[in-house]
Amino acid sequence: MSSLAVIPGDGIGPEVMAEVLKVHAVVEDVFGTGLKTEVLPWSADWFLEHGDVGIDVLAVRRDHAAVLLGALGDARIPDNRHAIRIIGGLRQQLELGVNLRPVRLRALAHCPLKHVTAVEDVDLVVVRENTEDVYVGVGGAVRAGSPAHVAMEVGVHSRWAVDRVVTAAFELARSRRRRLTLVDKSNAMPSAGPLWQGRFRAIAASYPEVECDHLYVDAAAMELIRNPARFDVIVAGNLFGDILSDEASMLAGGLGVAPSASYDPEDGSFAGVFEAVHGSAPDLVGTGRANPLASVMSYSMMLGRLGLREAHAAVERAVDEVLCGDLLTPDLGGTARTGDVGDLICRAVARHD
Ligand code: ATP
Ligand code: MG
């Protein structure tokens, strides 16, 4: 019997995670995956009460097959220390170097672009490096607060981490439409640029069946809107991948339907951390307007990575069904509440045969 660590988190995190747990109970009933859940209380409330985040990352890794992570972020902790320690701790200590952010349009109505005329035109995955770049916390400030204030934020890019994420992206592209686009800003980044470009070319030699492509990040931002159908898999560093995946999510309905998976491709016994791309959305707390689908879709990615193919397919079909119907939360133009959408997913999974 394996176990899932469930961290509901802050803001709408617990509200959408409650729907995921409902869906999981049905999946368990229908497919008998043998995955029990353990809800772990680390959150802003916990941090404020205990003065510490509480997470023991290595114990989480030891005791669980995967982590379902809710959003973390709370205005009472302005530097988001608790979130950075929990999310950063999981990513860094567990070497979760690959972050997948798929964007697939399920019903034409959810794409705001009028020149997108077929759902197949939006079906891409952003593969984001997850441990380096400007997120490493290297830098400093001098003369802070004075008119001569200077701040430095250093982007770190190691050959090792670049190889890991580029290889994962080629593997993914090979299993999809076999087209991989490297996105960088090598024309303005004379140190990181050649590393990414050189490793991309070197690794491409092992994947002759994958068509390679390159765009500067500014051009990629434009192309995502101009012609999303040109993209299959995009690989990028941590910062550009973060920005482009939020942009790309809008092509399929926005943050309410944007899931993600973070994993270490070399760790065969831990599936990774699965979380919605969105944050804690304090404006929606308690309103019943939060869309639970991003979290349900992240859960579905987890089922896929755990090799539970039937359960994964059933949840994907349920998500398709809901997104093609009209019982939707307000972010998708409907009037349904968080729990209504969760119930609908549960009923669709239960109908599975
Ligand atoms: P973070 O810094 O944690 O990424 P953020 O400032 O980017 O947070 P989010 O919490 O991601 O902000 O949300 C941005 C806005 O998107 C929210 O204010 C909310 O209106 C909308 N939003 C986010 N998640 C959802 C959701 N699940 N359903 C509906 N709307 C959402
Ligand atoms: Mg955000």
TrEMBL record:
Residues 3-345 form the Isopropylmalate dehydrogenase-like domain. It comes from the Bacteria. Pfam families: Iso_dh (PF00180). InterPro entries: ICDH/IPMDH, IsoCit/isopropylmalate_DH_CS, IsoPropMal-DH-like_dom. Coiled coil: none annotated. Its cofactor is Mg(2+); Mn(2+). Gene3D superfamilies: Isopropylmalate Dehydrogenase (3.40.718.10). Keywords: Manganese, Metal-binding, NAD, Oxidoreductase. This is Isopropylmalate dehydrogenase-like domain-containing protein. It comes from Streptomyces amritsarensis.
